Amino acid sequence: xxxxxxxxxxxxxxxxxxxxxxxxxxxxxxxxxxxxxxxxxxxxxxxxxxxxxxxxxxxxxxxxxxxxxxxxxxxxxxxxxxxxxxxxxxxxxxxxxxxxxxxxxxxxxxxxxxxxxxxxxxxxxxx
Length: 127
Fold this sequence. Notes:
four-stranded antiparallel beta sheet; Mannose-6P_isomerase_type2; RmlC-like_jellyroll; RmlC_Cupin_sf; Cupin domain-containing protein; mannose-1-phosphate guanylyltransferase (GTP) activity
């Protein structure tokens, strides 16, 4: 997939995810030969990230450990471990941990990554 054009037209990358079985178990491939930024985000119990948007990237999230409350656009739900979430460029989004142990998400950002691209609409930490 060529994602070098307008980031608002990024296709949802969840359709490219696949799992390969091996004698020792398996691996899940999320992207190949793409310009991306990859993070693991840990959200402490009782905390949430700002309600935000980005002008220059879309984000793919894979919930790793515990259920995480996610908001994308007008929808908010509890995403289960293993669930894949696509956050299109310009979409209002947030993640929160309502549980009692830290929760992690794998984040793959497609497009031009820059922390200055965060537009905070609400923030619990007055940033």
